[in-house]
Design goal:
- The structure is a single chain.
- This protein has 15 helices and three strands.
- A three-stranded antiparallel β-sheet has the order 1-3-2.
- The longest helix has 41 residues.
- By secondary structure, the protein is mainly α.
Length: 246
């Protein structure tokens, strides 16, 4: 990524700042590419990255979950000595997905990330299959174009959100896809050249996109009303000050 993108990432993704940032990136990358895993499997996968202590990864997973990048994705039976017990698996939330797009390996494998994680299922109506969306994306876009989209979505999100990624709740993160696409001229230009009729012909998808767009419009209208109120108060204050100076 170029320097502007790096500055956006460092300023708006708090998990990639300060102590623990390297391990946070490693955990997110493993889960992005491989899908939900238990803590011990994350640790084993990261041994090749120089990670030697299981508690280090356990703390990173707990911290990323607390901050909304990860969630409990389910459970898996594991054997501990002679006992068999359930262990939580951890997967990406939308905040974790956006953050992982700042990591080269994840950004370059957008389809793999979408296939191995449960992100699309959370937002698509029941009538729309995740696999249908993925198959059409593969048909519409080349690997290079998908990388452009990944980078553009990241940059668009980080430019669209007001400050820290962690300050945006999960529902709003999904709604921000509209302003993110608008902010990213590279993605917007790429999409505008494609015939999206096949994608938009999927039952339920146009309605979903309309709902998301309407939600963003409502956010803008609310912000505009707040600005008008503030402007009115400022005008009144300035006018009062001028009267007092006469």
């Amino acid at each position: 990524m170029h320097i502007e993108s790096e500055e956006l990432v460092s300023s708006k993704i708090a998990a990639f700042q300060g102590k623990g940032s390297r391990n946070n990136k490693l955990v997110l990358k493993i889960l992005a590419l491989g899908g939900p895993l238990i803590k011990y499997d994350i640790f084993k996968a990261l041994k090749s990255e120089g990670i030697r202590n299981y508690p280090t990864i356990s703390r990173r997973v707990d911290d990323l979950k607390r901050r909304g990048y990860l969630e409990n994705a389910g459970t898996r039976l594991i054997r501990v000595g002679k006992r068999v017990e359930e262990s939580h698996t951890y997967g990406l939330r939308w905040r974790g997905f956006i953050a992982c797009l700042a990591i080269g390996d994840a950004r370059e494998n957008l389809i793999r990330v979408l296939e191995n994680n449960h992100l699309l299922e959370k937002v698509l109506p029941n009538s729309v299959s995740k696999q249908i969306i993925i198959d059409i994306l593969k048909e519409l876009f080349s690997q290079e174009e998908l990388e452009t989209i990944s980078k553009g979505i990241l940059e668009g999100y980080l430019m669209a959100i007001p400050e820290n990624l962690e300050w945006i709740n999960e529902g709003e993160l999904v709604a921000y896809i509209v302003p993110a696409l608008i902010k990213s001229s590279s993605v917007w230009t790429l999409i505008s050249k494609k015939d999206l009729s096949k994608l938009l012909s999927i039952k339920g998808l146009p309605e979903l996109l309309l709902t998301m767009t309407t939600g963003f419009e409502m956010q803008l209208n609310q912000s505009l009303e707040a600005i008008k109120v503030l402007k009115g108060q400022l005008n009144q204050y300035v006018a009062t000050g001028r009267e007092q100076l006469r």
